[in-house]
Each structure stands twice: as C-alpha cells, then as structure tokens.
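pasting for ref
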Amino acid sequence: MTTNPADGWSVYTGTWGTDFDRETSVLLGGQYSIKFISGTPADDPTLVGDYRPVIPGMPYMASIWVRADSIAAGNTMTAFINWYTSEKVYISQSVIHNAVLGAANTWEERSAIFTAPATAAFARLFIRKNNTAFNGYYGFADFWRAPRSFLAYRSAAVPASPTNIDFDNESYDYGNIFDTGTGKCTIPTDGLWHFYAQTYVVNLAAGGTVDIVLRNAGTPIAYGTTARAHALNDDCVAAVNFIGYLSKGDSIETYLEYSSGTPSVAGTVTKMTGVELGGFV
C-alpha cells in the first residue's frame, strides 16, 4: 500500500489506502494503474486531478481507460470534467463516462470532446467508482486541447444554382467556426487546415456536368472532380479536398456549378467538413 495518491491526483471523497491505491499487477501500461478497492463506503470514492488552465470556447478531448472486475447492475464507473472561473468558482460539468462497463476484466477506452464554457479559466478531471463491492481500475486518464472542427450538411434537397451551397445544419462544430446562416467557415487563427466537401446532384440533363469548388472569400482555392450525367436525370456526385495554410479571418465556402438541366442538390449526403491541422495551442 502507498501512503499518497498517484502524481497529479488528490482524494476528493474516500480514504487513500482503503478505498483506492496504486496497482502494479493489473496494468494497461506504465508503472501502475489506480485501483478503486472493492467496498461499500458511505460515499462514492472519488479522485480529482489538479486545476489546469483552459481557453474559453476551445474544444478539449478527454480520454480515460477503465476496467472493472464485475459488470453487475449498479457497478458504475464515472469520469467527468468540472469547469471553473478564474476565481475557481464551479461553472458546469461535462460527463465522459457514467455507466457499467461492457465486459468484466477488460480495459475499455471512453472519450469525448467538450467545448470549454465562455467563462472558463480552469478545469479538473474527476474519476469515481460507485460504492458497491467490486474492484475498478483507471489508467491514462487525461484531457487536452483538441483541434477546432465542424461537419455541416444540407438538411433537405434544394434546387441547384451556380452559387455557394447553403449548409443549414451541423453534426458538430467544435470551436464555433461554421455559420449555418451563411454556409461559411471563418478561420479563427493562422494555421494549417483541411477541408472536404461533396455534393449529390440529381436530375441533370444528359451529358450535363457539375463542378464543386472550395473558395476563400470568393477566390477558388481548390477545384474538385467534374461529374458528368450520361443520361437524362442521372445522379452525380462531386467532391473536393483542400489542405493548406490559411490566415485568421479567411472565409471558406463551397461553390457549385452545373452546365444544363434543372438539377437539385440532395440533402444529408451533401456535406462540408473542416479541421485545423496545426497552429493551435
């Protein structure tokens, strides 16, 4: 038994050496995991990490590896992040995991991306075991700044026209960088970025073509594939990729052109995604 918690952790509820300890035989990697010892204390045993500075409005990836020797009902393992102001006043909580695991005696990873609240200055990671009689283990629990990214799509089909595609819905937008009102991504900081867009166009005339272009403030930066209809009302898919350095304030949109017919842009499968690859801290 060790007399102090593992580096970077403090006891929040429970007693070190009774409710938890370092474990050197049940390991995912490294020197030890943290074992939550089987027992039924009054409160759920909980460890908490140090206060760590965060940037408000930025996305953070949280990841834990967790294991339990029983997956009976009620044998819950829990991990979450609490956000705090600059005065270390609690703001809100983001849950990474709060459930019984899928299999006994098996390491399982749980991860999630959260956006730091607008008033956040610090965050702390908490790990917990329900106060029931089973052994639980944690390894490699951490969180870090994630790249800003988004995935936008058309919610329904619309008539095609030579203009930027109106992506009116989002699957996610980590960092709030895409505007569904304009269909554009505004680059928040200088850096390396990747963009991909695709469109599914229906009802093209025979021999008609459709082109898709990524533009920065109206100037083309990447030309995609040209899709051609071989018969009347053929459906076509066009796609475009871009990887390159962009500057703060650049405005990225997807532009569509077609040659003939009265085509429509299909919903859902017409989408645009972007992610920063470098230049973030």
